[in-house]
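hey so u asked for the seq, here:
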Amino acid sequence: MLVTVFGASGQTGRLVVGELLDKGHSVRAFLRDPARLDLAHANLEVIVGDARDSVAVDAAVAGADAVISALGSTRKEKAPVFS
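ran it, structure tokens below
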């Protein structure tokens, strides 16, 4: 199964990505800063983008069997929590 995970570099997102990979799934990790995801795996595809960019989101979910949102605001931002 191919799963796209938004917010893959956050605390929850990293756990979700790791669990999916451990169970043998293919994962598209959608995140803003690839340096924050210190994980390499043959079934992991990292996509850099912003969840507020509808074109990037459409591309990230194309062909995915499931989508998981682990998005949230950071301490620096006063944005609403999305997940």
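The mean pLDDT is 90. The radius of gyration is 12 Å.
lmk if thats what u needed
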